[in-house]
Amino acid sequence: MTSKKSEIPQNLLEALHHSEEETYLEYKGDVSWSDRKKKLEIAQTIFALANERDGGIIVIGVKNDGERIGLSQENFSSYSHDYLHQYLTGKGNQPIKCKLEKFEYKEEKDTEDKRFVFIQVAESKEFPVVYIAQTARIDQNIDTHPNNIGLRKGALYIRNKQDVGSKEIESAQEWEEVIERTYRKYERETIRRYETLKGRDNPYDSELTI
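User: That's the sequence. What structure does it adopt?
Assistant: Structure tokens below.
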């Protein structure tokens, strides 16, 4: 039997055991939120997942090959929902809906609990999420060049479908997919708002009184 298994929601448990990364699923190993390079990688993935259909999940404590190594206590403690939201606030053209949760988990083969962090990212409702803050360099002591950019001002990030990971949008085909998805999202949201308003009284149906 596993320990504390019931505490982990089924969708997160499935992500933990999926064993390989997908466009909706990213693994990070035993990394700390205070590691600037890893923090920027996680933030870029959050922006990218917000631009994917149905969003996605980041699992921290799992290697890229799916090995569930868990986090050290120090690295585990470096993450919090508040830290994440404080960092993301004001960095996008719209708020990003995401939730950070932390769990300890033990499998039969384990002698003790392993620690994992899960970040669930919701798909943006209508328009693509764009990074609008100042360009963030990985090494702040080195001039800006392509390999030293963690997040670029004005960039729109998506998930790479060929070599799974997060990337800045580039090709015409990628733009076409984003435009098509944006149109469909806007259409769905417009219908949702219309259905919501249908049940309300139209304020213009009544005469203006003084």
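Residues 5-169 form a domain with the Methyltransferase, Cobalt-precorrin-4 Transmethylase; Domain 2 fold (CATH 3.30.950).
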